[in-house]
């Protein structure tokens, strides 16, 4: 039981200080009990200064760090937040969230932060500027090339968030911008801002982030968006109407400010025509609808609003939903028996009731009464409770549910007769964050998923095999895109390291290779190279980009190829049977194995003695470009291409450009050799 004695006056963290607004705070109420839990006001701030503070203080400090250093800060913050999670759960109850709902927000949010921090260290180089794609050769003689790079935007990332995920909404957005090297200003929705404020307070107290990297506006945004410039990025989650207004605000238009929007989304779940009552897929479909209606009381941007199902299964679906929803106890989230908490506020309940009335113009209620509330616990007058409502649109093409979002535990059933009709109904949502398809048929999965993919940011297929492992319809995951076209806002968040790149500018850098290397930290053909001591003798402290070895040549004989074939068991005809090889359109005769070429290359370029090269952990982009025949000779040129020191470790990842040529100086194989090299070697 959580007892709040004194409502807290929320503060904003701007320009390095916790500050209160200039007016009396507006009361924020516990969603279940109606008690005042906090007071909020952010008036009187001059946000030109807030933005400037982020740009001038947080930005340079973050950009002075490398990608991995920034990711490690987030890891440390995430682990500390996990240790204090119970404090967040206590306030999460005030929002109307049950423990299970709070888990999605709090531990889901912290988990997202930690996943992004870990992926950044695995997938991004440890650099200030991230290379994007390969070097593009623009001249025959290697005197002019190009490379795309990503550099951090030099403004601030302003995140305007919705009330339903006060923690996850902040963390999933600040993780990418902080990894990118950009400071953030978070503006949570007022209704649940106390929880965001508590977490920001804890993060600031940790003293891990550089000053100015994270600011908070707890209260209305004021003039925050009036001062944005071309280097700032704005993200928005909330209603489509507010989103449209903000997206077209003058400074955003004037300065072409990047604006990512995630708004109302009328997500669909489709039951495949193969999956009738009694099948596991039917049960999974029903369970998912119930879960999406009741988790966060349906206040999820990804919740199922439209359930599209074969017409002959409508009655069975209503009966199954009635049984499942009948067991869902609505009540005070502090009560352990409660499975579904209240909506975030009484205003939200009025809003949901109004939307249901709109939906009723083209659909009828088959389960639940929006005006009658039955609860297991809690005050039905002061608490924003509402029971689940299931509607049926008998003429589904005309259903208002394709246009109207009731942001609560409400779903509309839409019967269909053919796969084409199911696809067409899903697309009537005009672009959604997510859809799910429950089927155990290859054809149904193929037809439905490809039919709707271009209208959705994510499509989840569910069947009996994935029933236990599936992460579900409603869960955005850090490695996967979250966002959708059209009505869903047209934005894209998460998606692993894609998210980081939204906060960086991609530039194509063209020039002579040696100057490109100086800019990008990647050696390429045509750039300066130096030969001398074998580069495998050099620790990272001595190794330089362009350190190179050109090996002596080695002949490839028939005996070599036959020995390799029998030794490895790879007796593929192209290496063993002259006639069969000649019949192959790519070969004139028997050829050497590609892996024999790579093995001989290693035999040519390695320095065998113990030294700073610790291990070979793979190759990238391996291509065998032309055949090697018996009697050909191979020679290797190995050049130090990229050096990536690991933070908190005694080694760097070093990438070597490996080019294998024949006696005619034709490139027969090309690849990157990946090694770990000690930073120092005695
Ligand atoms: P709003 O669109 O009103 O608010 C979203 C965010 O925008 C809040 O942080 C809000 O701040 C802020 N905001 C509002 N006006 C401005 C402004 N002029 N300048 C800057 N920021 C502004 O959505 P609500 O949270 O009130 O929810 C309303 C409806 O939106 C819901 O009923 C639901 O239908 C939909 N919604 C959809 C979501 C989705 O992800 N699909 C998520 C949440 C809501 P403040 O709270 O201080 O006003």
TrEMBL record:
Gene3D superfamilies hit by this protein: Aldehyde Dehydrogenase, Chain A, domain 1, Aldehyde Dehydrogenase, Chain A, domain 2, Hotdog Thioesterase
Superkingdom of this protein's organism: Bacteria
Aldehyde dehydrogenase domain sequence ranges: 24-506
Annotated Pfam families: Aldedh (PF00171), MaoC_dehydratas (PF01575)
One GO MF term: oxidoreductase activity, acting on the aldehyde or oxo group of donors, NAD or NADP as acceptor
Organism ancestry: Bacteria, Pseudomonadati, Pseudomonadota, Alphaproteobacteria, Rhodobacterales
Region called Disordered, residue ranges: 465-485
Protein name according to UniProt: Phenylacetic acid degradation bifunctional protein PaaZ
Source organism (scientific name): Paracoccus jeotgali
Record keywords: Oxidoreductase
Domain MaoC-like per the UniProt entry, residue ranges: 547-654
